[in-house]
Structure formats: C-alpha cells, structure tokens
Specification:
- This protein is mainly alpha-helical and 223 residues long.
- The protein contains seven helices and no strands.
- Helix 2 runs antiparallel to helix 4 and helix 3 runs antiparallel to helix 4.
- The longest helix is centred in the middle third of the chain and has 31 residues.
- The protein starts with a helix and ends in a 9-residue tail after the last helix.
- Bound molecules: fe (ii) ion (FE2) (2 copies).
- One fe (ii) ion (FE2) binds next to helix 4.
Length: 223
C-alpha cells in the first residue's frame, strides 16, 4: 500500500483515540454539570465507540501493511483546557468536537465509504459512519441542554464560532489540491482534498447553518 495510505490510517488511529479522550472529558464535565442521565449514558457510549474506532482503525492499518507505521499520538492533545471554568470548557468542547466535528464527520465518512473497495477498509468505515450519526446527535442534544442554562451559554457559542469554523476550514478546506489519488488509494478509503473542500462548504450551508439557525444562532461569514 502507498505511504500516503499508511500515513492517513496512522492519523486516523490517533484521531479516534483523541476522540475517545475528549468524549471522556465531556462525560466527566457533563456529570459535574448535572447533565440528564440519558445524555450521560449516550456520552458513555460515545467513549466506547471511539475506543472501538481506534482499535479497528489500527487493525485496518495492519491489514494494509502498516504494522510498523508510527501512530502520531500527541498526548498533550488528549484533554481540552477548562477555559472559563468547567462550564466554559464543556460548551467549547461540545461545540467544536461534537456539533462541528461530528457533523462534518458524517458526510466525510460517507464519501470515503462510497469509494472504498478494500475488504479490510469497508467494514471499518461502515461501523464508524453508523456511530458518527449518533455522536452528531449527542452534540446537538448536549448543546440544547447547555442552552437551557442561560444567555451566557449562547453568548459563548456565538463568540467561539468564528474561530472554530476557521480552524475546521484550515484542515478541511485548504485552497490547494494534492497529487490526485490512485484507484488503489481511493479503494483504501481516501478522498481528494477537493472532496473535503466541497463537503465542508455543503455541510456548513445545508446542515450546520440550519441547525444553528433553528437555535437562533446565525453563522458568522467565513472571512
Ligand atoms: Fe470515531
Ligand atoms: Fe465520533
């Protein structure tokens, strides 16, 4: 398999493991913030799912021939800062990692799955895609719970959104295009940078924007 495929799957293992850590932190903060019990149980499920995603992604990396591929795990990125106290940290993490991160993840994994032909890859992406839809719903439900707690929450979401969207735009919608993927690379679950860019803008316009609008929050223009 090409170095680009192995590097991408190494990155995915690290990203899934980081998602597990950040979901565990949201669970802990959610307990401290007295989230409703049903929401806490969904958060617990998300932690388990993300640990599964990390391990099945690693099995996939091995099946692709990347058993020796280093996984770029940054231990310092496994916790979010509790900015402005527990509630502030919780709002920021729900916004960035769930409302935005998981909502972008669903159509991205869907696009990856459509091109996948490799037998070790397809079941992994299928499992992740099924779970991410539940994680996305958790994010918006958690946001609704937080919004019940006063106007300061809404003000914080509005203040954090421009920077958070710019960060996602930098990673998902770069202006440049990479070397075109080979058939084998697409079959192993990779998609073109142009696909990332298109999906970023479509998801923002057709999904994330309307979800915020229903909550009385306007998306800031992408400058
Ligand atoms: Fe995941
Ligand atoms: Fe997830």
């Amino acid at each position: 398999m090409t170095p680009r495929v192995l590097e991408e799957w190494g990155n995915r293992v690290a990203a899934e493991y980081r998602s597990a850590a950040l979901a565990a932190q949201v669970l802990h903060w959610g307990i401290m913030a007295a989230f409703p019990e049903n929401l806490l149980h969904v958060a617990l499920r998300v932690v388990r799912d993300e640990l599964d995603h990390a391990s099945i992604s690693h099995e996939c990396l091995e099946a692709l021939g990347g058993g020796e591929q280093p996984v770029p795990l940054d231990v310092t990125a496994l916790a979010a800062a509790p900015t402005a106290g527990i509630l502030g940290g919780l709002i920021d993490s729900v916004l960035v990692n769930f409302c935005l991160g998981e909502t972008f993840a669903v159509p991205l994994f869907d696009a990856m799955r459509r091109g996948t032909t490799h037998p070790a890859v397809r079941p992994v992406i299928t499992r992740v895609l099924q779970d991410e839809a539940i994680h996305r719903q958790f994010g918006w439900d958690a946001l609704d719970e937080l919004l019940l707690r006063g106007d300061a929450v809404r003000d914080r979401v509005v203040a954090q959104l421009p920077g958070a969207l710019q960060a996602f735009r930098r990673s998902y919608a770069p202006e440049h295009d990479g070397e075109p993927l080979t058939e084998e690379e697409r079959g192993a679950g990779l998609i073109e940078l142009a696909d990332y860019r298109r999906i970023f803008h479509e998801t923002l316009d057709q999904d994330i924007g309307p979800r915020f609008a229903r909550r009385g929050i306007a998306l800031p223009p992408l400058s």
